[in-house]
Amino acid sequence: MLPSEDSSLRAAKEQSIHIRYAHYLFDNGSYEEAMEHFLASQVDITYVLSLYPSIVLPKTSMVPEPEKLIDISSDALYLSRGSSGLSDDMESSPPSQLSEFDEHTELESKKMSHNTLMALIKFLQKKRYSIIEKATSEGTEEVVLDAAGVNFGPYDSSRFKKTNKGRDNVAINSVAREMASILDTALLQALLLTGQSSATLELVKGLNYCDLKICEEILQKRNHYTALLELYKCNSMHPEALKLLHQLVEESRSNQPQAELNPKFKPELIIEYLKPLCGTDPMLVLEFSMLVLESCPMQTIELFLSGNIPADLVNSYLKQHAPSMQGRYLELMLAMNENGISGNLQNEMVQIYLSEVLDWHANLSSQQKWDERTYSPTRKKLLSALESIPGYNPEALLKCLPADALYEERAILLGKMNQHELALSLYVHKLHVSELAVSYCDRVYESVAHQSSVKSSGNIYLTLLQIYLNPRKTINNFEKRITNLVSSKNISTPRVNSGSAVKTKGNRASKKIAAIEGAEEMRISPSSTDSGRSDGDGDEFGEEGTSIIMLDEVLDLLSKRWDRINGAQALKLLPRETKIQNLLPFLGPLLRKSSEAYRNLSVIKSLRESENLQVKDELYNQRRTAVKITSDVTCSLCHKKIGTSVFAVFPNGKTLVHFVCFRDSQSMKAVAKGSPLRKR
């Protein structure tokens, strides 16, 4: 019905009509239809949001000026205001001041109803695609200019830069992103007010420009922690997100009443959050993994392994911030990846165990309750580690062991130093457990058998026999011999860095490990003992005592390990008064085996002799090969018939030549070889 006129004037009138009619529909409850007319008028979203005073908007350089949008004529402006029922003060005042007018209380309550918010959500969602696209392209343009070397200060709405081609100035401002921030912030609040939690979560998970301060406050107030975590995550606020997640996990553990929208939070969620951060911020991962290391040790270690965080870095961080979990970490690290732990870490783990065992021993000794056959869980771990882990330094650990206890640990360390006689003497004379001595011999035998002859690896059993058969008063000499042994190796043994001390139980544990590492300075080190002497030298044991020969253990060892012991040498060690009847369990299978071996070797000898004869016969047959000369056979050199002349046969058996031709050819070869000499 408008008359034909200028297109811009007609468009302005159409926009004014849409806005006025939208206000009329909004006041009469047709909210969705009103939003359609607001959308058709292409009015700015800030103008529509001014109708919702409870929607908190971020501070921006853009001030909504609805007058500019509908200022076609004074009558049009009056009609626009009159049809909407809003005063001039309401249009020009900020949303926060609308609540001051008592006459609009009922109208505000109506506008903030569920239907009005649903209409606003649809309006914002229809406007969102184009606004977000503009904001994204604006950010891309700035990135391109930065890459091209165009620098600018803090962004505001009035900055200008020149293009590389020297054209007119191009304004690069933040209008699009400010508009996107207003839209997303308002949309998030509208979704929360209408109870659309899932839609809120989807909004913050994707690309969004929500104002962090406003949305953080609203989500915290309404206990929408899942959406708040995603908001932190999309803004790269990982420390804040992890702190919140840890708080939620602790609250879930304490069974405190939670909001209906708050799910059950588990420690595994922290680990899942940390996984993508291992490659970019390993220190942040280490800091917050300490919160779940104790409750989820296996998952945390897997996090370190999957994230390729160096084990030395993890260990040093644990030493400073969670020393009680350092041993646990090294245990799991070794169990999950045996080759992934270095020798230094292995040595440190053994020192942690030893420090705890020494504290435990000192505690029991002070109460006079120490028993050598008592095994705590940590002592079992220590014994297992000493036997299975190859990366520690046995000399350094041996120096800190008490002289009157922990004999089994001492025996293992001596075994690592190849001091087998001392180790076996501890098992036999200190621990009085022959089974451990036999097991020790078995381990040594099996470890050496594949490297050298069985004869040399069987010497360990002969050493044990000597200990059984020569009991002496060695108890008083053990400490001196071991001290001398360690002192003699000080020159060739590198010291352990005191920096590897582990804080397992505060300062006390640290001092204990420091004492372990620097014990060589606290020992008297006599240097009169020659480390090259055999452990079996009898004069080192002192005088013989009245101990009875352990003949029963000798016979038991011979009967069980007869196949690993040199029988002749063992019989030489036995006392003359030993009865043959007692040696039947040893001599019976030994003689049977020897007889069987003799028979087998005899058969092998006969077979070898037969094979030798066959080879000789074949050699003779090859040497008497017959050559048939006919009238047609010719010499391969002169090509004349051989006839009855003397001939020669080449090794291939087929080439025949006259003997004279062969001799001449050999002479010519000799002359050819000697010609350089004659020329010279």
TrEMBL record:
Residues 626-664 form the Vacuolar sorting protein 39/Transforming growth factor beta receptor-associated zinc finger domain. Residues 83-102, 521-540 are annotated as: Disordered. GO terms for cellular component: cytoplasm; membrane. Residues 183-293 form the Vacuolar sorting protein 39/Transforming growth factor beta receptor-associated domain. It comes from the Eukaryota. GO terms for biological process: autophagy; endosomal vesicle fusion. PANTHER family: CNH DOMAIN CONTAINING, TRANSFORMING GROWTH FACTOR-BETA RECEPTOR-ASSOCIATED PROTEIN 1. This is Vam6/Vps39-like protein.
